[in-house]
Amino acid sequence: MENFIFQSPTQFVFGRATEEQVGALVKAHGGTKVLLVYGQGSVVRSGLIDRVRRSLSKAEIPFVEMGQVMPNPTDEKVYEGIDLCRREGADFLLPVGGGSVIDCAKAIAAGVPYDGDFWDFFEGKTIPTALPVGVVLTIPAAGSEGSGNSVITKAALQKKISIRAPHVLRPRFAVMNPELTFTLPPYQTACGVVDMMAHIQERYFNNTPATQVTDCLSEALLRTIAELAPKVMAVPDDYDARANLEWCGTLAHNGLCGVGVAEDWASHAMEHELSALYGVAHGAGLAVVFPAWLTWMAHHNPRKVKQWAENVWHVDSSGLTELETCLEGISRYKDFLHSIGMPTTLGELGIENPDISLLSSRLHEHKGPTVGTYVPLGPADSREIYQLAQG
Amino acid sequence: MENFIFQSPTQFVFGRATEEQVGALVKAHGGTKVLLVYGQGSVVRSGLIDRVRRSLSKAEIPFVEMGQVMPNPTDEKVYEGIDLCRREGADFLLPVGGGSVIDCAKAIAAGVPYDGDFWDFFEGKTIPTALPVGVVLTIPAAGSEGSGNSVITKAALQKKISIRAPHVLRPRFAVMNPELTFTLPPYQTACGVVDMMAHIQERYFNNTPATQVTDCLSEALLRTIAELAPKVMAVPDDYDARANLEWCGTLAHNGLCGVGVAEDWASHAMEHELSALYGVAHGAGLAVVFPAWLTWMAHHNPRKVKQWAENVWHVDSSGLTELETCLEGISRYKDFLHSIGMPTTLGELGIENPDISLLSSRLHEHKGPTVGTYVPLGPADSREIYQLAQG
């Protein structure tokens, strides 16, 4: 186990009707004027935004609004939010939505007190400070409600970049009412399932010795997600299944599953290139990239893949070679992904003729000569994995 | 799953040599003068207190000291610390030790800014504010480094009372170097193992429906503790086993295992009466009380006991009745406790003629007509469980 620091300061306010507390929470966390940030209208149509407005008014917190944040939010939307915040004197960001809306709000929060261009942070400058952010979560997947991360796409360059600054970007509170997820379309629910499993797996596949606690928690969460996913797909308003799944999504990404290990994140980086070039949903892209990455790893560094096959997918390895055990686990993972309606090949994702050279060259241009740590991938390796993703 | 709030704001700074950061951490968390609190000398003899003093001096943080905090710390020691803090103008508590030292420091931290008698808090008054506390942990067991709890014994009344005030009593940081636990005597190591398992079990045994995530994490931690304990008993300086076990102890009690459930805590309450009357070590007392409590529950509310037997102790329930499955799990738990040198009966604990009526009457005097929630225990029930603890 490596030395680590763990801290999960976000106040998770979880359960039925918790969105009615949002005004009091903003006040308790020091906000005096709010920028309400949301997406393309489902939260308006459902009446949620109205309930949030009423809660803010009841707590006598004035607010301004910015809607129309798109999936894979762009720098342009962040500039718009920064201008609006400054013009109106808002001192608290309140995203109502999923990862895209939250990530956009985090970038705005960092940009407002900064003299230069906020994109500096995404180019590697540290983030000295940011406005506080509170969250009303409607899509459990990205884990952004409990993380200090933000992912923004530079529109002009089709360049999707992720930053991590837990000391300033981690939300102060996150309101999580599982009922708000009942109306998610099945495809989006399934994408969320893939994403939360991926967040655990990006940390789980490491070479750090003696990580029993982190391993056992990660495996337990992965098994539980795999058990819960068919339930929410079958019965979208199953409160208990939705609630347990939503909490898994937070624990997948609040740092718990990464303590004391060297994390990988190559699959996320490879997927970001797919999203940026072909505009696919992040979760669906991961459903294609991760099995390919695992197949490659089964041949190049099977240790943890075998453990994952046995402890998550219940593969009985007696009588099987190490490679066979790994491949059987990957096969069950793919069956699971198919069962919730996810693609597992680039073709199934709708990308018939992927430009693998371009994907790989952009990957290394953005991430450097090698990507990931479980096996650091050079350009030849990442090309092989994109090829495996063709099925 | 019930509505809940989860927050784990303590900054856990975990790993080798982390005690050298303590001065910088006090400074980062706003301390300007420290009261260093410790026990009966092992931290002095090991040289740890000297390293902590050097780190404080290097960060130019002045400090005063209070040693000789005993196991099961008393109100008298808390008064001494409050006086010293006020007289010297210390504004930051730095306990170096295990649960007793940390709990004593927390009570001092709450008492210093309070005009009245700090014991008010232990009699049920809320705690409006407290000085900040940072921890250097040397005994992983109590979980106090990540909790907002404190347990103090009123010496004149032999009365041991526990309070919970996460919003003010939770440590700002906890320095956790597993190497500091290498020299723990085997008995104390084993007591710690029992205590951390008990912290999980007090939460795990509940009647809340649909708690899959919390259950799966709790079972995973219990299994892992049971696997690690023999390793640290056999090889006290096995860094990786000590590190994993220490982290389990924190997660057992930082709230993670209690989200969304109605917790029980009857066994802790029953053990506190044993400690107060007979002066036994808390962990050893729990090793006696918990199997008796479980045996009683196997007959009165077996659902979760059966699940625990199957998922923690790997009992194959095919061909067994529910009761047999429960009892087989309890039998394996007792075997495990014996294997690490713990008693499982009052006799083995050295209490040959327990005053069961007195134990039970004091329990209900302190905790009310019923204790616990899994099955609320009345006086006749608690007497039966103390009787079962005789073996």
Sheet with most strands: strand arrangement of chain A: 1-8-5-4-2-3
Structural class of chain A: alpha/beta
Give the helices and strands of chain A as they follow along the chain: EHEHHEHEHHEEEHEHHHHHHHHH
Number of helices of chain A: 16
Task: Record keyword descriptors for this entry.
alpha/beta, Dehydroquinate synthase-like, alpha domain, homodimer, six-stranded parallel β-sheet, 391 residues, Rossmann fold, globular, 2 domains
Structure description:
- The structure is a homodimer of 391-residue chains.
- By secondary structure, chain A is of the alpha/beta class.
- The first copy, chain A, folds into 2 domains: 11-180, Rossmann fold, CATH 3.40.50.1970; 184-388, Dehydroquinate synthase-like, alpha domain, CATH 1.20.1090.10.
- Chain A is 49% helix and 12% strand.
- Chain A has 16 helices and 8 strands.
- Chain A has helices spanning 22-28, 42-45, 48-58, 75-88, 99-111, 119-122, 166-169, 186-204, 212-234, 239-251, 266-278, 282-300, 303-311, 322-339, 356-367, 379-388, and strands at residues 4-14, 34-37, 63-66, 92-97, 134-137, 149-154, 159-164, 173-176.
- In chain A, the strands form 2 sheets. The first copy, chain A, has a 6-stranded parallel beta sheet with strand order 1-8-5-4-2-3, sandwiched between helices. Chain A has a two-stranded antiparallel sheet with strand order 6-7.
- In chain A, β6 and β7 (159-164) form a beta hairpin.
- In chain A, α1 (22-28) crosses α3.
- Chain A is globular and about 65 Å long.
- The relative contact order of chain A is 0.11.
- The model of chain A has no long low-confidence stretch (mean pLDDT 96).
